[in-house]
Specification:
Layout lengths: L25 E3 L6 E3 L5 H14 L7 H9 L14 H5 L6 H13 L5 H7 L7 H10 L3 H6 L2 H5 L6 H12 L1 H13 L20 E3 L8 H10 L3 E3 L10
Parallel strand pairs: 3-4
Antiparallel strand pairs: 1-2
């Protein structure tokens, strides 16, 4: 806060008690700033989760307007429903012609083969971005294995803390998320990590990298390339770090 520019007209902000989109009571954890709507059926949450999923999975052509229409028309309850969309359904949306519908369906189909770390980051688990997702896939090379990992095993992964481990475990325990995974599997989405170059076989063997800053391509792709060359990607800088 910049207190020296206050003129006395300021008013305290009263945190909302109910979500402005769905009307459900909000949740707030003592000591944290955020007030959260935890209603999985909240229309605003469905739209934002869909936009985020499309961004991380590189589904070109699925922006805010399209996401809002898909949710409003009842075509999307969770991101897995993307993989059941038809051309006929898309053509019924405002702004869609045949070519645009074909392009979006092709982009959705192409996203099925994204690396597991990309999918994991797209699921919206609190605390799991591209770096943490890569660490998780390194320890558990399939979504099924990760789903069965207990909190202790998750917290033991270097770079993960107990809060993130707890969030991951809680996410996989929710029935709606288990149903989401089942739908992704039925749609043919890649749920296992691709085979990696064995450790010690590559020009970067023995080197440790931290990926940070603005890059020209997604971080998980950079991490995959480093690991394919025998290097190791870690989440934070230490005396063992070779390059940042």
């Amino acid at each position: 806060p910049i207190t020296d520019v206050r003129d006395g007209s300021e008013q305290r902000i009263t945190p909302p008690e109910h979500c402005p989109s769905c009307g459900e009571a909000v949740s707030h954890t003592e000591g944290e700033v955020a007030y959260l709507c935890v209603n999985a059926a909240c229309p605003a949450q469905r739209v934002e989760k869909l936009i985020y999923f499309a961004h991380v999975m590189d589904i070109v052509g699925l922006g805010e307007s399209t996401a809002e229409q898909l949710v409003a028309q009842g075509l999307i309850a969770d991101p897995a429903d993307l993989y059941t969309l038809t051309q006929e359904q898309l053509l019924a949306l405002e702004g869609f012609a045949e070519k645009k519908a074909e392009n979006l369906l092709a982009a959705i189909a192409g996203s099925k083969k994204r690396p597991l770390a990309r999918l994991l980051a797209a699921l919206g688990i609190r605390g799991v971005g591209s770096t943490v997702a890569a660490l998780l896939v390194d320890a558990f090379p399939s979504l099924e294995a990760l789903a069965q990992a207990d909190e202790e095993a998750l917290a033991a992964i270097p770079g993960l803390g107990p809060i993130t481990a707890r969030n991951i475990r809680a996410w996989f325990e929710r029935p709606r998320n288990q149903a989401l995974i089942a739908k992704l599997r039925a749609a043919g989405v890649q749920l296992e990590a691709a085979p990696q170059t064995p450790a010690g076989e590559g020009p970067l063997m023995g080197l440790s990298f931290v990926i940070t800053g603005t890059l020209s391509q997604p971080r998980n792709e950079v991490a995959a390339w480093i690991e394919a060359q025998g290097g190791k990607v870690v989440g934070s800088v230490s005396k063992k770090t070779s390059y940042v």
